[in-house]
Amino acid sequence: HQARTTRSGYAIFDTSWDRRDRQRFRRLVDLGEALEHGDEICVAYQPQVDLTTGECTGVEALCRWEHPREGLIPPGDFMPFAEQSHLIGPLTEAVVAEALADLASWRERGFGGDVSINLSPGLFRDPDLQDRLMAHFRFANMDPQQVRFEVTESGIIEEPNRGINTLAAFRSRGSRISVDDFGTGHSSLAYLADLPVDELKIDKHFIQGLGHAWGEAIVGASVTLAGKLGLDTVAEGIETELQRDKCRELGCGRAQGFFTGRPMFRADFEAWLGLQ
Ligand code: C2E
Ligand code: MG
Ligand code: MG
Ligand code: MG
Q1: Is there a contact between 210 and 216 (Cβ–Cβ < 8 Å)?
Q2: CA-closest residue to ligand 1 atom 4
Q3: Candidates 79, 203, 241: which one to mutate for ligand 1, based on the most atoms within 8 Å of Cβ?
Q4: For the chain, how are helix, strand and coil distributed in percent, rounded to 5?
Q5: 3-class SS at 240?
Q6: pLDDT band at 123 (very low <50, low <70, confident <90, very high)
Q7: DSSP 5-51
Q8: How many Cβ atoms are within 10 Å of 256's Cβ, its own excluded?
Q9: At 250, which helix (H) or strand (E)?
Q10: Looking at the DSSP assignment, which residues form a beta bridge with residue 58?
Q11: What is the pLDDT of residues 192-217, one digit of tens each?
Q12: What residues does the EAL domain cover (predicted)?
């Protein structure tokens, strides 16, 4: 057995692990260190645009890891194992802290939008989650009203009681709750009506089907369902003008995709928005 110590504790790995296990383990140790040291974890912001007015209503905060040796690592390559470890808490707090500080500075300069934060289901197991997040709001002098929390359908179902209680508590403080990747989970539609949610983010898979009968049927039905339940809709992954126009025709409220705005680091987003 070999052991490696980090400032937050120590970890042991078994020599029978294969290369992939060791790589994953190495990443986890690196991520723990990155979170202790500070500036390797950063946030990219992707605009959400009102499909009627064209106005930017807010941004989604998307986590990035600027690894000293490996370069920029996308969340798909570290979020899954962070979610299986205790690091998901500190990682989420790092994103929240940076996003709230940036939002505060943008709002001082006249930006009227909000920020969407992704929450992993495992976070709901932490009884202190609400207090921790509220401390970040106070520190940034921001109001929960300026934040949306995104959770996937399967995420809510994974931790139904604690998940729903936490989301309901934030909602009563004025935060909006979004169902991320809508249509890809396994929740029943009946269940959706009882959840404390405000909007559906229609998954990019269905948006990519626009221009085909199946895609239009699914996006159209999702928008209609959302409307009947009193929920807003955001189309995720709009890559073409045709997809944007179809979403607008089908009555979708907002768009988020490479066509309307790529994820950008702070300075690029400020330039994109025309902030002084
Ligand atoms: P998500 O929350 O569904 O975020 C949207 C993803 O779609 C982002 O990928 C974004 O870059 C990508 N995207 C946006 N527009 C387009 C488009 O037009 N075409 C295509 N093909 N893709 C588009 P990203 O940034 O790689 O994030 C992947 C996932 O990682 C996110 O999916 C989310 O589930 C997770 N994630 C990212 N940041 C965080 C975080 O801070 N906390 C948690 N828990 N999860 C996060
Ligand atoms: Mg999301
Ligand atoms: Mg999504
Ligand atoms: Mg996702």
Answers
A1: yes
A2: 62
A3: 79
A4: 45, 25, 30
A5: coil
A6: very high
A7: EETTEEEEE-TT--HHHHHHHHHHHHHHHHHHH-TTEEEEEEEEEET
A8: 25
A9: none
A10: 48, 114
A11: 888 899 999 999 999 999 999 999 99
A12: 24-276
pTM for the full predicted model:
0.93
Nearest-10 crossing angle of helices 129-140, 88-108: 30
253 neighbors 232 (Cβ within 8 angstroms): yes
> What is the best residue among 118, 210, 259 to mutate for testing ligand 1's pocket, by most ligand atoms within 8 Å of CB?
118
pLDDT at 39 over 70: yes
Taking the centre of ligand 3 as the mean of its atom positions, its distance from the CA of residue 72, in whole angstroms, is 20
How does pLDDT run across 55-88, given as a tens digit for each residue?
999 999 999 999 988 999 999 999 998 999 999 9
ipTM: 0.97
- Dist. CA 24–CA 6, nearest whole Å: 16
Rounded Cα gap, residues 82 and 68, in angstroms = 18
pLDDT at 157: 81
